[in-house]
């Protein structure tokens, strides 16, 4: 299993809108080949920080989706959203064990 972890920190007061946008997301990625699931979490001690975790059967499936569908997946981002500069990061993981 391949895991992509995207993190970012919201700079303005739009955390509630961003969280709601994730709750209301159109599930565009759900039927992508190789997609397993997505989780969106927020640390209690950093309420403006969002962690987006996607699980894939393999890295290639993630890369194909990312290359071809990233723009449409971001279409629901609330207007006016500002991020803390250089806070957006993506890290990749291999699943070892449950």
What topology emerges from the helices and strands here?
Layout: E1 2-9, H1 15-23, E2 35-41, E3 49-56, H2 59-73, E4 89-94
Antiparallel strand pairs: 1-3, 1-4, 2-3
Topology, number of strands = 4
Major β-sheet profile? 4 strands, antiparallel
Helix content: 10-25%
Termini, distance in Å?
Answer: 11 Å
Q: What is the molecular shape?
A: globular
How many domains? The number is 1
**Percentage of residues in strands:** 25-35%
What is the top-level CATH class?
Alpha Beta
Low-confidence stretches: none
Report the CATH topology name.
Answer: Alpha-Beta Plaits
CATH architecture: 2-Layer Sandwich
**What do the pLDDT scores average to?**
92
- Number of continuous helical runs: 2
Q: How do the SSEs run, as a string of H and E?
A: EHEEHE
User: What strand line-up does the widest sheet have?
Assistant: 2-3-1-4
Structural class of the helix and strand makeup?
Answer: alpha+beta
Gyration radius, in Å: 14 Å
Give a structural overview.
With 98 residues, the chain is an alpha+beta fold. It has a single domain, classed as Alpha-Beta Plaits (2-Layer Sandwich). 24% of the residues lie in helices and 30% in strands. The protein has two helices and four strands, in the order βαββαβ. A hairpin with a 7-residue loop joins strand 2 and strand 3. The protein is globular.
Characteristics of this structure?
98 residues; alpha+beta; Alpha-Beta Plaits; four-stranded antiparallel sheet; 24% helix; Antibiotic biosynthesis monooxygenase family protein
